[in-house]
């Protein structure tokens, strides 16, 4: 999952605001653990208890270091393929471009056959993780330590824990010989943390056969937010995400001795340009998916904000007090504006040397429907310095999936059955996942992993002491199985039981909804 974006900025604000900000960024963070006590109620199919040991499997996965770069994901993919085969599931180790990896890169793929009546569903996770500095951790981040009821380690949440929940659900269905109306495809890919071009992007382009008949996909990006005792939990299901527009600025000037700095020195010119970028006021734009998200959240908003949440676009335009409150929250503001921030800076290697070149990298995140080309053209005006060049490092457009689908309704039904007070919310992510590669193929893709987390849990993603409770993992497996079964029931009831063995080639699945 890409970037925690501004979470640390969450100040001590009104409790429900904190929760909304978490919801706003959960997107940016992915799927999360539950420090909050996982309420005892689990889907009422007691025999969904997994045969495999979740804690052991996750610990083994964490011990296989897959920090990206270089990734080195092949050994972990091999482990998952073995576990799938041991459970009687057809599986394949899919080699992917090595790109500097010493031990090789690969994805793990498995397909649990169903009755072939309905579009297959993909359970997508990623194998790679971001770096971890042991000094900041209370345990070795790559030892897969068990601390009380938790498994602690890099990737416990993002996203090796996701892969374990997916794998255990598939293995459990196979172990019990459950034939669903559709195939379930397990897919765990490399390279997500660097944009997925060498992982999910590569597979969607080069190995379409792996995704035959796929019409649905579940991946990281959403989950169940546990709030204070007695308050409704929020099941956040991500239906779209902002897209990255990563740019590299290069400023050139006359090099020389810094005791007599020239007027066109590269570093000061770059700093001046970055200052202009930092101080531009990005226009507010409320896309339908964001309006729907906040309208769904309105019942949980502070009294004075409910009307504003319910009618976001007009309230931001016509109600200055609400607008000020809303935009003062970084996570909310990031969902109604393009954002940009300089992250990487390079200048002179020596204090007393004026360099010929200075560079900066910008992480811009665009609202769905915006193009990076158009954005960087606009930025050229803001930079107001023809001597600075702009190069695009990473960008892709983001599609949206509809919330009006049998899969969304299946999640709603399971939420209502296991958590009657809960609220299911279609969400927009400020960060991005690999879901966009699949949405671009017309697959309905949601960011949702049934795991329970509290606001405070978010901070461990890409941070120190990332951990997940074993109970949370096991409850996630049981809930995922319940959702897969419920999807069959929903589709059967909505199509009058007609399953007619639809042979959907994955590019023929219903197209993306709103652009
Ligand atoms: Zn992730």
The gist of it:
By secondary structure, this protein is α/β, with parallel strands linked by helices. The chain is built from 15 helices and 19 strands.
CATH superfamily of the largest domain: Zn peptidases
CATH fold descriptor of the largest domain: Aminopeptidase
CATH architecture of the largest domain: 3-Layer(aba) Sandwich
Query: What structural class is derived from the secondary structure elements?
Result: alpha/beta
In terms of per-residue confidence, which ranges show pLDDT below 50 for 5 or more consecutive residues? 1-50, 500-515
- Write down how many β-strands occur, each being a DSSP E stretch of 2 or more residues: 19
- Proportion of residues in extended strands: 15-25%
Biggest sheet: strands, sense, closure?
6 strands, mixed
Please give the radius of gyration in angstroms. Answer: 23 Å
Ions, cofactors and other bound molecules: zinc ion
Strand order of the largest sheet: 1-2-6-3-7-17
What is the CATH class designation of the largest domain?
A: Alpha Beta
Silhouette: globular
Query: What integer is the average pLDDT?
Result: 88
Number of domains: 2
- Distance, first to last CA: 23 Å
Helix content: 25-40%
Q: What is the number of helical segments per DSSP (H or I, 4+ residues)?
A: 15
């Amino acid at each position: 999952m890409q970037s925690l974006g501004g979470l640390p900025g969450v100040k001590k604000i009104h409790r429900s605001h904190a929760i909304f900000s978490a919801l706003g960024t959960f997107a940016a963070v992915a799927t999360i653990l539950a420090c909050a006590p996982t309420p005892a109620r689990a889907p009422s199919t007691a025999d969904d208890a997994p045969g495999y040991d979740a804690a052991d499997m996750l610990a083994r996965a964490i011990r296989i270091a897959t920090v990206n770069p270089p990734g080195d994901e092949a050994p972990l993919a091999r482990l998952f393929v073995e576990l799938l085969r041991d459970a009687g599931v057809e599986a394949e180790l899919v080699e992917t471009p090595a790109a500097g990896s010493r031990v090789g890169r690969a994805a793990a793929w498995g397909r649990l056959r169903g009755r072939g009546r309905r579009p297959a569903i993909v359970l997508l996770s990623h194998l790679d993780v971001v770096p971890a500095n042991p000094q900041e951790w209370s345990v070795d981040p790559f030892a897969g330590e068990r601390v009380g009821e938790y498994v602690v380690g890099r990737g416990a949440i993002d996203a090796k824990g996701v892969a374990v929940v997916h794998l255990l659900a598939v293995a459990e269905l196979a172990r019990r010989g459950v034939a669903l109306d559709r195939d379930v495809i397990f897919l765990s890919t490399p390279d997500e943390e660097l944009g997925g071009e060498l992982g999910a992007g590569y597979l969607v382009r080069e190995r379409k056969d792996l995704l035959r008949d796929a019409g649905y996909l579940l991946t990281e990006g959403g989950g169940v937010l546990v709030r204070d005792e007695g308050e409704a939990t929020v099941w956040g299901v991500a239906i779209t995400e902002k897209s990255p527009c990563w740019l590299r600025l290069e400023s050139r000037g006359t090099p020389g001795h810094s005791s007599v700095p020239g007027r066109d020195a590269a570093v000061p010119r770059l700093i001046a340009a970055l200052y202009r970028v930092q101080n531009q006021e990005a226009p507010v734009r409320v896309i339908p998916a964001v309006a729907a998200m906040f309208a769904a959240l309105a019942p949980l908003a502070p009294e004075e904000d409910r009307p504003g949440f319910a009618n976001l676009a007009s309230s931001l335009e016509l109600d200055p007090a609400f607008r000020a409150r809303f935009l003062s929250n970084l996570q909310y503001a990031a969902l109604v504006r393009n954002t940009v921030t300089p992250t990487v800076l390079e200048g002179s290697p020596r204090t007393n040397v004026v360099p010929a070149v200075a560079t900066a990298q910008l992480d811009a995140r665009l609202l769905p429907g915006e193009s990076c080309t158009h954005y960087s053209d606009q930025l050229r005006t803001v930079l107001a310095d023809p001597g600075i060049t702009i190069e695009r490092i990473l960008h892709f457009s983001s599609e949206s999936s509809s919330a009006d689908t049998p899969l969304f309704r299946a999640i709603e039904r399971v939420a209502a059955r296991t958590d009657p007070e809960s609220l299911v919310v279609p969400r927009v992510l400020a960060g991005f996942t690999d879901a966009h590669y699949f949405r671009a193929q017309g697959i309905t893709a949601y960011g949702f992993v049934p795991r329970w987390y509290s606001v405070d849990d978010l901070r461990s993603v890409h941070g120190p002491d990332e951990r997940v409770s074993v109970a949370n993992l096991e409850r996630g497996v049981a809930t995922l199985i319940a959702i897969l079964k419920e999807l069959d029931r929903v589709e059967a009831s909505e199509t009058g039981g007609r399953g007619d063995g639809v042979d959907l080639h994955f590019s023929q699945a219903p197209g993306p909804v709103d652009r």
